[in-house]
Design brief:
This protein has 493 residues and is α/β, with parallel strands linked by helices. The chain has two domains: 139 residues, Rossmann fold; 297 residues, Dihydrodipicolinate Reductase, domain 2 (2-Layer Sandwich). It has a nine-stranded mixed beta sheet with strand order 16-15-14-13-7-12-11-8-17, sandwiched between helices. The chain has a six-stranded parallel beta sheet with strand order 3-2-1-4-5-6, with helices on both faces. It has a two-stranded antiparallel sheet with strand order 9-10. Strand 5, helix 6 and strand 6 form a beta-alpha-beta unit. The mean pLDDT is 89.
Length: 493
């Protein structure tokens, strides 16, 4: 079984922040892969835009170096690299001043009929000013789209302000708020699993499901993002976007059709149905932590304060665990547990849907413990879906039971490398398909649920609990589950 790669229309993609880490690590290497698979028309261009006073040759040299660093050596074909680099151009633009805008307009003047994408890989406080200058420089066409990187604001008020500033220039259908988790193959397969198969629909509710766990764990620390991260923390950086979007895809009702607004309407209903966590429920529904020095993979790693440059204290959480509830008919009484953290025991992103235990075992004590069925949707690494079922252990000697997986490994089944999430989402922008992007009201609904948690933590004047790097977080996270007589899936395994 093989994947099909369909070409996109001719386009010009202009990356503001073109010399930055995101462009060099993800965007430009990702587009190289799409170039190699024949999805980019020959005339399409990729234009870096940044303040650096570079000429085209200097920028192309940086892109070549980035490809060498971030693309597997086996994929670096010299002829393909050269043909890809011929697409690359550069314009020096100061997004806070007048310099460079006229040059950008001249570069685009002859290709007004193409799809034109402006990717804002910059700080969010520049989104509004860049859009205003785009409008003033005459480069907008009916086929223009704008891509906004996260974080989209620091709180509800700033998200409102950014949405209003960008919305003053672009129509909502032209605005693509990117969350790369929604571009992952397994995340999209969750919708196929739910809505293209009749098997699970009758079970996908409070009568059959005991609870849902969503885990996004990283082994890395804050690395080069310390200044940003210390002003954000895990709740803003991961939960407000990535984890809540995953929760929405698990909990949403079937949309009337697989169209952008139909899908996003159903996700919005989930966000608006979330029971609010505030002062009264904070202790039982939320835990936060901050990593200390430890070891990962046998290698010592520093603590969070050391990575900040030896700061004496910080109230920023690097780990969050939450118990959320969706107050509607399908999910009433079913808890959704979410956790995310840095410097965890392993790199892992997965959704675990745990079904209720059987009401009575006919097999007796000698058969062993009967584990509840679990549907495990692995986002990374080793993307795939497993359904854990109880089975007889082969051999004589009576009935002995053990859990075994029905395993759908994407790598083994399809035997081709899949596009990276950024690659897929970039092509969706060019095609004008916003299904996997967040709408304005989704972003603001997520902030409406997140902000009271931030406020409650601020008022409580408590500090994040310490956890050792290389562990699964602070003891408060285990206690959050233990209070409900449950445990995190990895800890129980």
């Amino acid at each position: 079984m093989s994947a099909q790669f369909i070409a996109v229309p001719a386009f010009d993609l202009i990356v503001f922040g073109g010399t930055g880490d995101l462009a060099m690590r993800k965007i430009l290497p990702g587009l190289y892969h799409r170039h190699c698979d024949g999805q980019l028309p020959p005339e399409s261009r990729i234009i870096g835009a940044a303040r650096s006073a570079l000429n085209r040759d200097a920028f192309v040299a940086r892109v070549r170096e980035a490809l060498t660093q971030f693309v597997a050596a086996a994929d670096l074909d010299a002829a393909r690299v050269d043909s890809y680099l011929r697409r690359i151009d550069y314009v020096a633009v100061d997004v806070t001043a007048d310099a460079g805008w006229e040059a950008l307009a001249e570069r685009l003047a002859e290709t007004a009929e193409r799809v034109r994408v402006f990717y804002l890989a910059t700080a969010p406080n520049l989104f509004g000013p860049i859009c205003q200058r785009l409008a003033g420089s005459g480069v907008l066409t009916p086929k223009t789209r704008v891509v906004l990187e996260k974080p989209l604001g620091h709180d509800l008020a700033s998200a409102h302000a950014i949405n209003d500033a960008v919305g003053a220039v672009f129509e909502e259908h032209q605005i693509f708020r990117i969350d790369h988790y929604l571009g992952k193959e397994t995340v999209q397969n969750l919708m196929a699993l739910r809505f293209a198969n009749s098997l699970f629909e009758s079970l996908w509710n409070r009568t059959a499901i005991d609870h849902v766990q969503i885990t996004v764990a990283e082994t890395i620390g804050v690395e080069g993002r310390a200044a940003y991260y210390d002003g954000a923390g895990a709740l803003r950086d991961m939960v407000q976007n990535h984890l809540l979007q995953l929760l929405c895809l698990v909990a949403m009702e079937p949309p009337a059709a697989f169209t952008a607004d139909a899908v996003r309407d159903e996700k919005l209903k989930v966000l608006r149905a979330l029971t609010q966590i505030s002062n009264g429920s904070l202790a039982s529904c939320a835990a936060r932590g901050q990593y200390q020095a430890g070891a990962i993979g046998g290698q010592p790693v520093p603590g969070y304060l050391e990575e900040l440059g030896g700061a004496n204290a910080s109230n920023t959480e690097t780990f969050v665990a939450l118990k959320a509830e969706v107050a509607n008919w399908r999910w009433a009484g079913v808890p959704f547990y979410m956790r995310t953290g840095k410097r965890m025991a392993s790199r892992l992103s997965e959704i675990v849907v745990q079904f209720k235990t059987i009401p009575h075992s006919i097999f007796g004590e000698g058969a062993g413990e009967i584990s509840p069925n679990r549907l495990i949707i692995r986002l990374q690494p080793d993307e795939g879906v497993k359904l854990m079922l109880m089975s007889k252990d082969p051999g004589p000697g009576g009935m002995r039971l053990k859990p075994v997986p029905l395993n759908l490994s994407f790598a083994e089944t399809f035997q081709v490398p899949f596009p990276d999430a950024y690659e897929r989402l970039l092509l969706d922008v060019i095609r004008g398909n916003p299904t996997l992007f967040m709408r304005k009201d989704e972003v603001e609904a997520a902030w409406t649920w997140i902000e009271p948690i931030l406020d409650a933590w601020s008022r409580s004047q408590t500090t994040p609990k310490a956890y050792t790097a290389g562990s699964w977080g602070p003891s408060d996270a285990q206690a959050l589950m233990a209070r409900d007589n449950r445990s995190w899936f990895e800890d129980a395994a």
